[in-house]
Amino acid sequence: MAEPIRVVVTGAAGQIAYSLLYMIARGEVFGKDQPIVLHLLDIPPMVGVLEGVVMELADCALPLLVEVVPTTDPAVGFKDVSAAFLVGAMPRKEGMERKDLLSANVKIFRTQGQALDKFAKKDVKVLVVGNPANTNALVCSSYAPSIPRENFSAMTRLDQNRATSQIAAKLGVPISAVKNIIIWGNHSSTQYPDAGQGKVTANGAEKSVVDAVNDTAFLQGSFVETVQKRGAAVIAARKMSSAMSAAKAACDHMHDWWNGTAPGQFVSMGVFSDGSYDSPKDVIFSFPVEIKNKQWKIVSGLTLSDFAKTKLSVTGKELQEEKDEALSVLDSNVSNL
Ligand SMILES: NC(=O)c1ccc[n+]([C@@H]2O[C@H](COP(=O)([O-])OP(=O)(O)OC[C@H]3O[C@@H](n4cnc5c(N)ncnc54)[C@H](O)[C@@H]3O)[C@@H](O)[C@H]2O)c1
Ligand SMILES: O=C(O)C[C@H](O)C(=O)O
Q: What is the largest CA-CA distance in the chain?
């Protein structure tokens, strides 16, 4: 057996964490041979709930879970962690956009960036789930200058999974037959779900999704809108934001970051933009990436339609606006934000 690694989940008493902790502790992210010390960070009013979560984790009798560390102290929560799932933040309610959470949530990510900087391992992989995820990841990284920027990411995997599921349903094929559906830009209603590079395998042959679907009106219309508005649709139905699917997506994201992507396959992650595909630089923008040796690389050389370019420009503009707003909320002298 390998040495245990320390993994922190923030918002550990919340609804996403309730599914996520189990999946991590089962070995679905870091592998079935990787023992884990789980750090559960939440805020003081949630201590009682956290105690219940600790009891349930114990009652699961999970062989890989060697220790559970519940805490409300970021110094303890982030101490020596190799992976961080930053879930703890306020969720939106019906009628809100995710960016309406910015002023409430961005300060959490300042504090957690500072704590990561001081206490986490320098090669920690940070996944921000709490909304607005892209801008929170940007803020978090800015307050953790001793950790490489490449180690911060925001979750758009839920959007990718939603989009893949829509395409599989449209084609009447299993999810596993569809790959390389991309989410560009912000985890918000301006994101661009793009099936243009997608591939589907049917009867042993691989084909482009565009050819297989053969319905431009769908691919540029209801497909895009359904994915963009899926989070709001779940809130309208459940009166709470997505949790089970968000936890699954967080596991998929970290799993692929940790273990790599298969040859010819790419996945979407919000990562620091280098200006690829005319996106704004230095915001956290969702790109298709390939991953090897725990390092992601933006897939280059894809040909985008004029329709796609317009969509990328809209979502990029929103990310720049969010960044400006974050700066005004934090009214900080963080020069690298
Ligand atoms: N990126 C995505 O695809 C995606 C998907 C679903 C939800 N989300 C977001 O994830 C976040 C969490 O959602 P949820 O449904 O689990 O919410 P929740 O309200 O059920 O749980 C949030 C938890 O975070 C805790 N918390 C608040 N401030 C904290 C802090 N400073 N440190 C540690 N913990 C803190 C709360 O006490 C609570 O236990 C929300 O912002 C939601 O919008 C993102
Ligand atoms: O939509 C939300 O506010 C929650 C989450 O970001 C989602 O996409 O389901």
A: 58
Whether residue 236 lies inside any domain: the answer is yes
Instruction: State which residues form the domain around 126.
Output: 5-154
User: What is the total count of domains within the chain?
Assistant: 2
| CATH assignment of the domain containing 111 | 3.40.50.720
Q: What's the pLDDT tens digit per position in 170-220?
A: 999 999 999 999 999 999 999 999 999 999 998 899 999 999 999 999 999
Token digits of residue 83:
């992976």
- 257 within 8 A of 249, measured Cβ to Cβ: no
pLDDT on residue 161: 98
| ipTM score of complex | 0.99
State yes or no: is 39 an active-site residue: no
72 CA from centroid of ligand 1 (Å): 15
Q: Tell me the CA–centroid distance for residue 242 and ligand 2, in Å.
A: 6
Sequence letter at residue 170:
K
Q: Whose CA is nearest to atom 32 of ligand 1?
A: 42
Q: Which of 134, 114, 120, 105 is nearest to 39 (CA)?
A: 120
Categorize the per-residue pLDDT at 93 as very low, low, confident or very high, splitting at 50, 70 and 90. confident
**Cross-strand pairs, 259:** none
Q: Is residue 18 part of a domain?
A: yes
